[in-house]
Structure formats: C-alpha cells, structure tokens
Specification:
Helix content: over 70%
Oligomer: single chain
Distance between the termini: 31 Å
Number of strands: 0
Largest sheet: none
Order of helices and strands: HHHHHHHHHH
Strand content: under 5%
Radius of gyration: 20 Å
Length: about 220
C-alpha cells in the first residue's frame, strides 16, 4: 500500500493541473485563516451572534478564556503562513488538518447547519495537502527513504509557474486576503468588497487560461 501511495503521489506532483490546483488550495486556506486568526490573536470577538444563539454563546465563552482564544488565533495564523512556503508546507498541512478536524467536530457538535459540509470539504483539502507532501511525511510511518531523488525532483521544474502566473496568483491571493479581512472587521471604503471579488474572479479566469496553455505546452514536449 505504501508503494502505491508513493506512486500516486509522485504522479500527482507531475500533473500540471493538480500542481496549480494545489497552489490555489494553499492560497485559499491561507487567505481564509490568517485574517480569522488575527482577530482571535488580538483578543477580538469573532462574531456578533449574541447570547440568544448557541453558536454565539460558544464563541463568547471562547473569547472569555483570553489567552486560549489568542492561542487559537496564533495557531491559525501560523498554519496560514506555513502552507505558503514549499519548505514548510508539510508541517503546515499537518497543522491545518488538526485545525480543520477540530472545526469539523465543533460544527457537528454545536449544530452549525450546512457549515459542517464546508468544514468537511476543508478537511479533505488538508488531507490532499498531506498526500501532496507524502514524500516528506512518510518518514513518520515508514523507513526514511527519499520519496523523490534529486534527479526526479529536478524534473518538476517544468511545472513551475511563469512570471505572469505568479503575478496573477499573487494578485488573487492579496485580494482574497483583504476581502476575508473585511469580513473579519477590516474597515475599507464601501464597495471595496465587490471590487475585490471582481479582481479575484478575473485572476481565477486568467489563471485557468494560463494553466491550460502551460498544460498544453507540457503535453507537447512529451510527444
């Protein structure tokens, strides 16, 4: 089974679409949790649901713990930073998996409604990142044999983003980060949310087009 998992992971890392999709997943997790974590880290309330709502009561109780509330926020910010760098992606994936499993069971236990389905999807996304980094994580369970040799790993250079793609991804990430920050209390001029959503959608479309072209070029070089 371990060899099969290695094989699947290696094949996935050589796929242009999966490579870009994984980058997008990392950006989504980071932009979604850094603003949320900062709110907690600074000791601010997460919601304004009030004591009449059981979910609001739950968040109010967590807020009242003080240092624990800030600890939760710090861990979320840390995980959001770790998944943005290739060297720390494996550690960030493990950290995010724990965070999302905790959120999943909270949503189920308290009754967040359909939020539980969203949390489940995010857990699956975190598990995908762990699968993506299996070459590093496998040493926790099996003999420390390198997943990819230096020669094999160098072949992944053909999958790297172009300069234009990096700009598009970076712009989309920045707009998403600011947008989620506004949902957590960041005050900006009226209408900024719509502008940021528009920028994000444009970046998504352009990234898809550029990814399609890159995938086509890669396929042509293999012929």
């Amino acid at each position: 089974m371990e060899k099969t998992l290695n094989s699947f992971s290696e094949s996935a890392r050589k796929n242009s679409w999966l490579y870009r999709g994984t980058i997008g997943l990392r950006f989504l997790l980071s932009m979604g949790f850094i603003p949320t974590g900062l709110v907690k880290l600074f000791g601010l309330p997460f919601s304004n649901l009030g004591s009449s709502n059981p979910v609001g009561v739950f968040f109010d109780m967590l807020l009242s713990t003080g240092v624990y509330w800030q600890f939760l926020g710090g861990i979320q910010v840390l995980a959001g930073i770790l998944v943005m760098f290739n060297r720390t992606l494996a550690l960030g994936s493990i950290l995010f998996t724990g965070i999302m499993l905790n959120i999943l069971f909270i949503t189920i236990g308290i009754g967040f409604g359909n939020t539980a389905y969203l949390a489940l999807m995010m857990v699956l996304g975190c598990l995908w990142l762990c699968f993506w980094e299996w070459g590093k994580l496998r040493v926790l369970f099996f003999d420390p044999v390198p997943f990819l040799s230096q020669k094999e790993d160098s072949g992944s250079k053909s999958l790297e983003l172009s300069v234009v793609e990096k700009i598009v991804y970076g712009t989309g990430y920045a707009s998403g980060l600011i947008f989620f920050g506004m949902t957590r209390g960041l005050k900006l001029p009226l209408g900024t949310e719509i502008f940021l959503v528009g920028v994000g959608l444009v970046c998504l479309i352009v990234a898809f087009i550029l990814g399609f072209k890159a995938s086509t070029r890669l396929a042509e070089t293999k012929l």
